[in-house]
Amino acid sequence: MTQHQWSAVDGYFDTVLGDEDPALAAAAQAHIGFDLPDIGVSRSQGKLLHLLALVQRAERILEIGTFGGYSTIWLARALPPGGRLVTIEWERSFAETAAGHLARAGVADRVDQRVGRALDILPDLAKTGEQPFDLVFIDANKPDTPEYFDWALELSRPGGVIVVDNVVLGGAVADSDDPDGGVRGMRRFHEKVAAEPRVSATTIQTVGAKGYDGFTLAVILPAPDDRPEAPAPR
Ligand SMILES: C[S@@+](CC[C@H](N)C(=O)[O-])C[C@H]1O[C@@H](n2cnc3c(N)ncnc32)[C@H](O)[C@@H]1O
């Protein structure tokens, strides 16, 4: 399999499933205006986020890493009336571009954009009563992912879901000698997950228009006292 085939297959599903409207299509092009590679999630990944939020019946969503608002729109469109999404972006020009896309997509009224360094903003969310979140999507600078995971745990309810993007990094995550900060971050993140009794998690490798990567899905378990009793062995 090659990147050409992965892109062709994503393209086929994008066409046949056809659930990207002009507002999403515009947000998907945000990188062009900034002369950047396409760093947002793909259509199929955005739809997966949307479906996870629906399955989760999420009323409060936190996103770390807005960029042009593409994943934000998919997530916000899963919210019920009165639902809220907080999204954090470090780069003001990206946040301003995202604001236009969110307005065009008709979700600006339910999205609270915060501009700044996520590790400065996350402690404020703990104080201002925005939490607990039902779903957290982590998709910002990769080296800080372990600390974002800590905050996601802190700000989520039991039963909450945490999704972390770009955890495979083209396979580099398996190389313990790779000095790249993102790879170090994703290895540290997985070690944290493994040592954390409050979550149950899995990581799935993916291929597609965005290359070879993967995501982690973690569910926050109820406190031990609140867990259903295991049936007595027969
Ligand atoms: C991969 S992009 C997000 C893509 C977006 N979630 C989507 O799928 O459409 C990562 C974003 O995180 C932002 N970012 C990087 N470091 C950050 C930080 N320390 N705090 C907040 N945002 C940050 C970048 O500016 C960039 O816009």
Largest sheet: 7 strands, mixed
CATH class: Alpha Beta
The quaternary structure here is: single chain
Arrangement of strands in the largest sheet: 3-2-1-4-5-7-6
Element-level helix/strand string:
HHHHEHEHEHEHEHEE
The count of β-strands is 7
Query: Which percent band covers the strand fraction?
Result: 15-25%
Euclidean distance between termini CA atoms: 49 Å
Over the alpha carbons, how many angstroms does the gyration radius reach?
A: 18 Å
Structural class: alpha/beta
Q: State the low-pLDDT regions, or none.
A: none
CATH architecture label name: 3-Layer(aba) Sandwich
What is the overall shape? Answer: globular
Bound molecules: S-adenosylmethionine
Helix content: 40-55%
At CATH level 3, the topology is: Rossmann fold
* CATH homologous superfamily grouping: Vaccinia Virus protein VP39
The overall pLDDT average reads: 95
How many structural domains in the coordinates? Answer: 1
Protein name: Putative O-methyltransferase
Keywords: Methyltransferase, S-adenosyl-L-methionine, Transferase
InterPro entries: Cation-dep_OMT, SAM-dependent_MTases_sf, SAM_O-MeTrfase
Pfam family, one: Methyltransf_3
Chain-wise SSE layout:
Elements lengths: L2 H15 L4 H7 L1 H4 L9 H13 L4 E5 L5 H7 L7 E6 L2 H13 L6 E5 L2 H10 L5 E6 L6 H11 E10 L15 H15 L3 E10 L2 E10 L14
Parallel strand pairs: 1-2, 1-4, 2-3, 4-5
Antiparallel strand pairs: 5-7, 6-7
Task: Walk me through the structure.
Helices cover about 40% and strands about 20% of the residues. It has about 230 residues and is α/β, with parallel strands linked by helices. The model has no long low-confidence stretch (mean pLDDT about 95). It has one domain (about 5-220): Rossmann fold, CATH 3.40.50.150. GO terms for molecular function: O-methyltransferase activity; S-adenosylmethionine-dependent methyltransferase activity. This is Putative O-methyltransferase. Keywords: Methyltransferase, S-adenosyl-L-methionine, Transferase. Pfam families: Methyltransf_3.
